[in-house]
Design a protein that fits this description.
This protein has 79 residues and is of the alpha/beta class. The chain contains 1 helix and 7 strands.
Length: 79
């Protein structure tokens, strides 16, 4: 069962896939239909309600860093 952060949206997806790199992500996208992505489940509405969920929280690496920008993977938490 899936719940968003405040418990207002509750549903049971057919599948939840956790990806940790771009290869896992590409495989998951190519094998599923009707997918949504979620990270910290901080949504106030039903935007993540779907048959299949892909969790990107493990894709949390810094890809590039310079004096003017930082490029990160989609699952990184900004604090």
């Amino acid at each position: 069962m899936y719940r968003n952060f405040n418990g207002r949206e509750v549903f049971r997806p057919k599948e939840i896939i956790s990806v940790s790199d771009i290869t896992d992500l590409q495989l998951a996208i190519s094998s599923l239909q009707k997918i949504r992505f979620y990270g910290s489940v901080h949504a106030f509405n039903d935007i993540t309600v779907a048959e299949n969920l892909i969790y990107t929280g493990n894709m949390n690496q810094i890809i590039a860093l310079s004096d003017s920008y930082v490029k990160v993977e989609s699952g990184i938490k900004l604090m």
